[in-house]
Design a protein that fits this description.
Elements (H helix, E strand, L loop, with lengths): L1 H29 L2 E7 L5 E6 L7 H17 L6 E4 L4 H12 L7 E10 L5 E5 L7 E5 L7 H6 L7 E10 L11 H9 L3 E6 H9 L9 H11 L4
Parallel strand pairs: 3-4, 3-6, 6-7, 7-8
Antiparallel strand pairs: 1-2, 4-5
């Protein structure tokens, strides 16, 4: 029995690492993850850069939805509706809702309009209209300040937001704090934040040869030592 339990545990760990490593390969192949020297909006010089705008084909957005779905399933997040903040979250929530069907999870999708519609059916939402008590998972690409979350949470005041799911947690300090954006979001809103991968996953993938870029490892380690936070 112990061997079976241990074997099952090891299989679960392998499955989790597999989808994380596959996502990192996917990011590199799509050009969404690149290495070099990049000036971030914060002014920091980063040895790696993530540009979700480089996912630009139907195949890529379908695969991206699948990785979000895997993150939701692996973390056993309760979900009735997948919500995407306009504008980047719109294709993400739709593709994730479709991908969850392959896990036998039939869920709704919803996204907000930046400008509330005053004609026709009106309203701030497209897709499933949120109702009191339903479990909503908010999907976004990355979170550096929590701005998108702050904008949409007032619109979702009657629902149960079970999680905020992002693609990458950079695991670095905010400009005004020793905590990361992810940690600040939880402190402020008490909403669990899950990421498909984080910076440490990327570094492990480079170190183990999952993707190329070993020449950038020392710069990444130095950046992590200066700006990083613990997981």
């Amino acid at each position: 029995m112990k061997k079976l339990l241990i074997f099952g545990f090891e299989c679960a760990i392998i499955a989790i690492m597999s989808y994380k490593e596959n996502f990192i390969r996917f990011m590199a192949a799509s050009g969404a993850l690149t290495f070099g020297s990049f000036t971030l909006k914060s002014g920091r010089q980063s040895p790696y850069f993530i540009n979700a705008g480089n996912y630009n084909t139907g195949d890529e957005i379908a695969k991206l939805g699948r990785f979000y779905a895997e993150c939701i399933v692996h973390n056993k997040i309760s979900v009735d509706t997948v919500f995407g903040p306009a504008y980047k979250g719109i294709p993400l929530c739709v593709s994730t809702a479709i991908a969850l069907e392959s896990f036998d999870l039939s869920v709704n999708y919803c996204f907000n309009r930046k400008e509330e519609k005053a004609h026709g059916e009106g309203g701030a939402f497209v897709g499933k209209q949120p109702v009191v008590g339903e479990n909503v998972v908010i999907i976004d690409d990355v979170s550096t300040s929590g701005k998108a979350l702050r904008e949409v949470l007032p619109l979702l005041s009657n629902v149960n937001v079970t999680a905020f799911v992002i693609a990458v947690d950079r695991m670095e300090k905010a400009l005004n704090s020793d905590k990361s954006a992810v940690q600040q979001i939880y402190d402020e809103f008490k909403i669990p934040v899950f990421s498909i991968i984080n910076m440490e996953d990327i570094m492990r993938a480079v170190e183990s040869g999952v993707i190329e870029g070993k020449e950038h490892l020392s710069a990444m380690s130095e950046y992590r030592n200066v700006f990083g936070v613990s997981g």
